[in-house]
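idk why but the lab printer keeps eating my pages so im just putting this in chat instead. protein + PMV:
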Amino acid sequence: METYSAPAKIILFGEHAVVYGEPAIAAPFSALQAQVTVMPAPLGSGLSIIGAASGLTLHVSLANDTPDNALVYAAQLVLKALGKPPPDLTLALRSNIPIGGGFGSGAAVSTALMRALSAALGAPLSGEALNNLVYEVEQLHHGTPSGIDNTVIVYEQPVYFVRGTPPETFRVGAPLTFLVVDSGVSASTRETVGDVRQLYTRDRAHYGAIISEIGEIVRTARTLIESGGALEELGALMNANHALLRALSVSSAHLDRLCAAARDGGAYGAKLSGGGRGGSLIALIEPDLAPSIAAALRSAGAAQTWLIQLT
Ligand code: PMV
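predcted complex ->
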């Protein structure tokens, strides 16, 4: 029995603005993973997907063309792309990525599932083909996704992403240490992306200017990350990016409080990461401050924290 996996992701800069053509920076977050194990199934039993945690079994046929279940849809896309009927197999899915946590759970689950199914059919998908198919599933989760989640998760590399252009990776001049924080509140990215769209449609001049300002922050951040050092400046950019996300209505009192707790504890900067209103946040820190800042975050109501280094 083979197991296939895909990591979670964090967005360092530029969420939401990326939907409008501005750049964003994201990195894989491998402490959290989606995994799919391919198991043989009796002859004639067809293709099923089992959720390890829920125990839920989904049967995949090619009949239903527009399923509202993303897992079934992901499997169907692979079968259609490869021109194969459903094989007699069970795909067992488990994931420790919080759903609605801003960690790209949907894209990671689709990626692991599509990797597993295409490999089991003897035709593993190339990175580009997989990325395109995962993006199609993302549209079911998000409505109008920028494509950043699937890109960083499929390629498992830090990316500088501009919608509609080939993803670029970038150099990290000096290691950066982040605390990644699960706020403990799950939130719908589809909803926050929709709300930002409404604001933008209502007052294009005002919200368009905020979106452009975020783009400017992302371009400066890339230069700083590549040249190494300048942690204070990078932290200040994170704080500014968070304030602009708040102006787009996608922060929350809880996220603001958690960011403040990280900054008060000595972080260079902190911002929400992903869709917002809940989900996750990240703080740029000195490694030796990790235990005390993590403790401060937990006292302020964070569900969980992880330390990651971007190198
Ligand atoms: O909530 P997440 O982690 O899936 O973040 C999505 C990032 C957004 O910029 C808010 C939406 C998008 O499609 O890029």
